[in-house]
Amino acid sequence: MSAAEAPGLVVDAPADGPSAAEVPWRRLDPRLIWADALRVVLSMLPGAVALFVFDQTQGMTVMPLLALAGWGLWGALSDVVRWLTTRYRVTETHLERRTGLLVRSHRAVARELIRTVDADARLLHRVAGVRRVTIGAGQTTTALEAALTLDALSRESAEELRVELTGAPRERAAQGPPALAEFDWRWVVHNAFGIWAVVMAAGLLWGAHFTLGAFGVDLVGWFGSLRDALGLRSTAAAVAGGAVAVVLLGAVGMGTQFLTGQAFFRLTREPGEEGGSVLVTRRGLFRTREVARDESRTRGISLSEPLLWRWLGTTDTSLITTGSFWWSEGVTVLPRGPRRVALRVAAAVLGDAPLTAPLTRHPAAALRRRLAWALWVTGGCGLALAPLGGRAWLVGLSVAAPVTLGLAWAGYRSLGHAVSGPWLVLRSGAMARETSALRRGAVSGVCVRQSPLQRRLGLATVRVSTAAGNGSYAARDLAVADAVPLAVAALPEAAPFREGDGPAPARIGSGRPAP
């Protein structure tokens, strides 16, 4: 059910029957205010030390610290207002929340539409003994927020709400259910490197420059002294040394972020409502997080393997489920880690192993199509650099050609598809090879598409639609002879549309197993 949000608008509660009016409204936990008081003190502490201990009065030094203190104070005041104005209750059919001071908001979510219940706690929340509970129901506000958020509830109230909404048993066993997956220290290797490590290093250096500058430390001068001490006199040596340092710093930052975010990770299957089950993940060192997902809404699973780390078997694992968006926490059931673990967890979640089924390789014409695009892109780079004069165009061609041709080959090697029992398995992608196993019963539509170049090469793309995950999944550039059978296997209702079509040429379609 949707929520109405408008200034001065009073929304009546949903028609839950006479008993709805008798359900009392609940309040947020008052310990939230104590957590905010501590946040204000911590946000003002750096500025106070810089002003009164180190006597730093320069504007460029003090302004960031004052902004930090202002941010902490504003957040604390906002939380106090939210605590004073927020009420929520759980009726037989709906979860409701009222909040707002100047702009009143009344939101109601039907309990039958709830997909996920996410309880997380930052460090200050844990100190105060409160949790933030996010309810996912396949809808967002105009600000792309979750269906409904309650910040903050006591730990006991958050657990009681989770039990009410998911139907999980109120008393958990001492040892808990057996884990489908648990944290492994070796996963750090899969998360410590990549392009984001460079971004992480840049952010750490920028933050350290301004923070240490507030206390009179010249970070740039310190790096210059270190360069002289290491004997890096030439510019090339200094740049190389700096690049290595940035990569190592980024790796340390990424590894630390992964450890603090995913420490104590545990994936379990627990009883749910009406005899169903929920997949529950718990993780976090300083900030703990617990997410419960209704398994009855799972339609498949996807494995994504980044190109640069494919040799290491690095894999991201995501559920294909209704009511959750691809960027949400609810679809991620396993941290980035080795492929063998992802396959084992996928088989445990689905109760089958469609991702291990042999895939059909797409014809060589698919490689020719990708090579043609690679040559077009390479030529475009050369033409773009030609006005610079000299041999700039040749340099552009020599740099672009290996990259585009390599991506064309990697994209072709990633192509594959299969029909494994009740599952449709599709694989494609150059930069990130994605293998998706989608339940055939979840397919709501199918489209067979051919561009002019595909028609000339005897290729087609089959795209299936579903009300889960990304909304559609495609088998790209497969042989025409394989396209219609795959479309019919995905959606048997499409079979009548084949009437009148002649048999496809036998020369198209290899039928060879994919690598």
From TrEMBL:
InterPro entries: UCP026631, YdbS-like_PH. Keywords: Membrane, Transmembrane, Transmembrane helix. Residues 83-162, 419-483 form the YdbS-like PH domain. The chain crosses the membrane at residues 32-54, 193-217, 237-259, 371-388. It comes from the Bacteria. PANTHER family: UPF0699 TRANSMEMBRANE PROTEIN YDBS (PTHR34473), UPF0699 TRANSMEMBRANE PROTEIN YDBT (PTHR34473:SF2). This is Putative membrane protein.
